[in-house]
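Checked the freezer inventory, then went back to the computational side. Two predictions to log before the end of the day. The first one is the construct we discussed on Monday; recording sequence and tokens without edits.
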Amino acid sequence: MNTIFGMDTSRDEAARIMNRWIRTDWLAVEAPLYRGKWFDYRFLNPVQATYLYASEYVIAYRNAFRTNMDSERAQFIKPLDIERLFLEPAPPTRFADEIEEKWEKRLKEHIRKIKAHKLRTSGIWRGRQIADAMGMPYKVYLELAFHWALRYWQQSNLPRPQQLYSDMIVDRATIDWEARQKTEFFYSSLPQYANAAYEDAIEFINGDEKLEGTILQSQNAHHEWLLEQCKERSNGHALLAQMVFHDRILPLDKVKGRLDDHGFEHFMSFAESNPVIARYN
């Protein structure tokens, strides 16, 4: 994530950007989104998350272009200037000898560009919020959104950001996401979810509920996600063992509390086994 433009945006700068660019009613939903968005994004401010979504949009757009239009040109396509996502197009300069009619034409074109740019930026922001509300990794959401948008697409250009969260797309993406969780094992690789970080958070809080903030809430939610993901799988005990003993992102006592004696014994038989799967990301 550190190589993506905008991921170093501070909270103060993010606040300035949001006040300048984003509708008040959209800002109001940001706080509730933190408890449901995909785990990798729970420690990002909304602007950082939006830059990340924008970078994934560019990748998804190029993949769709490669598949549906021109495989050779796909890598050169630039559907979005991420570095100027929250910057308006520079105003035109009027030349001293420029006639009024030509100047007005260029001015109208500039106004059109500003409107188009704001529409794209709003589309990126809103699309990111939709993915967050669905609890999906941005890469997965955009892959599904492009897939379903293009199933009924009748235009010469590929979908723009604001065209990737219709009711139909969200409904189909939701169904596909639920099905995909049964065939792929999604979990976070962030250091914030390591058992060591969890133990540090517990020690710091020391039973004081007032100190239970984003980190502990997200860690506990990730544990529940892992336990639920393993629950219905035929190799669930082996996966649990990988999470506990290899990846070390799930506390042993939480697994012990969910299994009966026979199940726990079976789970422990995988303690020295090699990993069952590679990390999703």
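The second is the one RB wanted added to the comparison set:
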Amino acid sequence: MTDTRIWLDTNGQWRRFYSIRDGVGIIRLIEAGYKLAVITGSVAEDIQLRVKKLGIHYFYEGALEKETSFQDLKIKTQLSAQEMAFVGDDIFDIPLLREVGFAATVPEAVDEVKEVVAYVTACAGGMGAVREVCDVIFKYGSLSNKLLEK
């Protein structure tokens, strides 16, 4: 949801830029009945506020090892990994990217991630990439992995 840049504000809080278009894509999926989750290794007020503002259903922060959060998410949603999509950009995301039904990343992701995903967005992270993935899911739904295979 960001371009990976952070800055420290005058109150000592880390901050990030978020795309309004990404938010619209998220809201459209939620309105269509999709359940969304954020799994992040960070613990930061700006992420908490963004997740709350968008109405994202499941939020895992401080998840340095994302597999535990993902297992919990599967239990809470009663979905299999193959029924889920995941967007990640770094090596910590690879286990989940390999497990889900639809795996996507951004152009500036590390090469190891690009090798395991079905879809690389045209838009950069924090610059409409989430909206692009939301639109693909909204358009193709559960068929997205079959339609976008390498």
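For RB: The longest strand covers residues 102-105. Strands lie at 7-8, 14-15, 37-39, 58-60, 85-87, 102-105, 119-120. Let me know if you want it refolded.
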